[in-house]
């Protein structure tokens, strides 16, 4: 009987030891899980938040990331229809607004007069007006953003950050080339399509994109260091430093 009890106790201790070893192996697996590997990757532009929060975290972010495919497809389809209407068919905005108003007023007028012949009450036409608070909030947000842009432009024009200055000049030059190839409406439509495709693609393949971007940024920094040593460092800055000291 005592030998039987000892054998049972040995089996129980072996089970506990096996459970401890499996839990320790699970913890080791968790340490080497993809989540820890993801944290080691430097995110694009130093991003610390998910893509959804970077885009605002609200309904616009849901549309851009195709959280609701019907709404996203409807928005993109509507933008495509407007682009085809104005760009390919060369329809004008003022003409479109006037035609929509003519059609709406004609339908409401005929419907209101037809109710007298069919003995029904006329349709209720709702009052349409712009609320004050949202308009003021939008205007205030635009004012803040415009002032920040002016401050950034002033800071870059002062010559304090040569790297940022060259980056902005290159970006504006690329934008001017794109503007010479297409008009504003086409450029706006291309930007709108990119907003509906690039964030989804990046969210799906963010690890691969971030890894590639990290290598590309390292190479760009290396080339910029060479350019700085060979070209930028040879630019005389004595007059500018004397002015700052004075």
Secondary-structure map:
Layout: H1 2-31, H2 34-40, H3 51-54, H4 59-64, H5 69-88, H6 93-114, H7 132-157, H8 162-181, H9 184-204, H10 206-230, H11 238-245
Helix pairs in contact: 5-9
Membrane topology: Multi-pass membrane protein
Keywords: Endoplasmic reticulum, Membrane, Transmembrane, Transmembrane helix
Protein name: Reticulon-like protein
What this model shows, in words?
- One of its GO terms (cellular component) is endoplasmic reticulum membrane.
- It is found in: Endoplasmic reticulum membrane.
- Pfam families: Reticulon (PF02453).
- This is Reticulon-like protein.
- Residues 60-246 form the Reticulon domain.
- The chain is mainly α.
- The protein has a domain at 205-246.
- Helices cover 77% and strands 0% of the residues.
- It contains eleven helices and no strands.
- The chain has helices at 2-31, 34-40, 51-54, 59-64, 69-88, 93-114, 132-157, 162-181, 184-204, 206-230, 238-245.
- α5 (69-88) runs antiparallel to α9.
- It is elongated.
- The model is unreliable at 1-5 and 19-39 (pLDDT under 50).
Question: Over all CA atoms, what is the radius of gyration?
Answer: 32 Å
Overall average pLDDT: 76
Distance between the termini: 101 Å
Shape field: elongated
**Major sheet description:** none
Give the DSSP E fraction (strand runs of 2 or more residues). Answer: under 5%
User: How many DSSP H or I helices?
Assistant: 11
Which residues sit in consecutive blocks of at least 5 with pLDDT less than 50?
A: 1-5, 19-39
- How many runs of DSSP E, i.e. beta strands? 0
Helix fraction by DSSP (H/I, runs of at least 4): over 70%
Note the run of SSEs as H and E.
HHHHHHHHHHH
Structural class: mainly alpha
């Amino acid at each position: 009987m005592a030998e039987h009890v000892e054998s049972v106790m040995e089996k129980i201790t072996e089970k506990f030891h096996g459970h401890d070893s499996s839990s320790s192996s699970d913890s080791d697996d968790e340490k080497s899980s993809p989540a820890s590997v993801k944290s080691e990757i430097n995110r694009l532009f130093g991003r610390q938040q998910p893509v959804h929060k970077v885009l605002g975290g609200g309904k616009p972010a849901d549309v851009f990331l195709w959280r609701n495919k019907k709404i996203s497809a409807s928005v993109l389809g509507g933008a495509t229809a407007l682009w085809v209407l104005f760009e390919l068919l060369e329809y004008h905005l003022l003409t479109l607004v006037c035609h929509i108003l003519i059609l709406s007023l004609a339908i409401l007028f005929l419907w209101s007069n037809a109710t007298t012949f069919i003995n029904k009450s006329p349709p209720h036409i709702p009052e349409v007006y712009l609320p004050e608070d949202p308009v003021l909030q939008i205007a205030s947000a635009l004012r803040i953003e415009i002032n920040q842009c002016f401050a950034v432009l002033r800071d870059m024009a002062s010559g304090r950050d040569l790297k940022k200055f060259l980056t902005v000049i290159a970006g504006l030059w690329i934008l001017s080339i794109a503007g010479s190839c297409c008009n504003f409406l086409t450029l706006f439509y291309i930007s709108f399509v990119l907003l509906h495709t690039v964030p989804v693609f990046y969210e799906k393949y963010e690890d691969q994109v971030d890894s590639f971007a990290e290598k590309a940024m390292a190479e760009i920094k290396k080339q910029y260091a060479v350019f700085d040593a060979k070209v930028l460092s040879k630019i005389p800055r004595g007059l500018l430093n004397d002015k700052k000291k004075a």
